[in-house]
Amino acid sequence: MTDTTTAPSGEAADPTAARAVSLHAPVIAWFDEHARDLPWRRPEAGAWGVMVSEFMLQQTPVSRVLPVYEQWLARWPRPAGLAAEASGEAVRAWGRLGYPRRALRLHGAAQAITERHGGDVPRDHAQLLALPGIGEYTAAAVASFAYGQRHAVLDTNVRRVFARAAAGIQYPPTATTAAERKLARSLLPEDDATAARWAAASMELGALVCTARNEDCGRCPIAAQCAWRLSGKPAHQGAARRGQTYAGTDRQVRGKLLAVLREAEGPVPQSALDAVWHEPVQRARALDGLVADGLVEPLDGGLYRLPG
Asked: Which residues make beta-bridge pairs with 268?
């Protein structure tokens, strides 16, 4: 990798570039030794396997994703296979991963890949970004992890590592900011292969060591350079960070309603859905939301099913 700390004659070295170079080698070396053996990281996963994993891993831990991912790829090893099925089958196969609209978006992306790109996940970042259900993060992740390209991949784990190591704060802002994107770009290695490895390594560091709680600085390969640690680990100054609740929420009710429909071989009557939650107003609101989101299809005679 080119030593970007060397400045032209008469010019001062760029301190940001120097800091970036000093972070790359130890983090990547740590990743080479400690990276988890995950199926979407294996060569046989291909770009489609990477894309499926990125949809499933959003707001969902690896332990819950693994069995569903393996079943999904066994059933639909190519986008065309999923595209040929009804969207309701994607919702059914999603199981209890949560946030089932992701299943509909993945189904829509598979259809677009089949129609626009001959069934192959496109390599071009702009073409990835143009797929339905693909946002800034997912396009960058697929381009980087599947095709080894140079992109800033900013998930929650990476943002936390950069916030602590470079910005000197405990947590990043709630939503990704322009300043974070600029910082991430400034920390990118110059060549594609190293940049792709850096993206995966910094993400793994945030997942396993620089965690949201109980960070393990003793295991961190860049602890000696971490701006947050060197400043005495100042406490977060923003709004209190609250964990998401689930029990008693509309999300829980939606999950119970969908579970009935996933397990049924055909349409189910309203009475079967009524039986899963005691509070009728909340139950009706959750069902209406599922219908509005395209996750449930109402039929004549008071029957409901997954979308056909």
From this structure: 304
User: Residue 176, by phi and psi: left (phi above 0), alpha (psi -120 to 50) or beta?
Assistant: beta
φ and ψ at 294, to 5 degrees?
A: 80, 15
User: Hey, what amino acid is at 18?
Assistant: A
Taking only the tens place, the pLDDT of each residue in 63-98 is 999 999 999 999 999 999 999 999 999 999 999 999
CA atoms of 157 and 206, how far apart (whole Å): 4
**Amino acid letter for position 19:** R
CA distance 153 to 18: 21
Phi, psi dihedral angles at 222 (to 5 degrees): -120, 25
Among 54, 204, 215, 297, which one carries the catalytic annotation? 54
Q: Return the DSSP state at 234.
A: P
pTM value?
Answer: 0.89
Active site residue 11: no
Q: Roughly how many angstroms between the first and final C-alpha of the chain, as a whole number?
A: 52
- Say which residue the tokens 């990276």 belong to: 35
Residue-wise burial string across 241-280, b where 16 or more C-beta atoms lie within 10 A, e elsewhere: eeeeeeeeeebebbbebbeebbeeeebbeeeebeeebeee
DSSP 236: P
User: How many Å is the Cα radius of gyration of the chain?
Assistant: 22
Q: pLDDT by residue (tens digit) across 136-184?
A: 999 999 999 999 999 999 999 999 999 999 999 999 999 999 999 999 9
Give the dihedral sign, CA 60/62/64/68.
positive
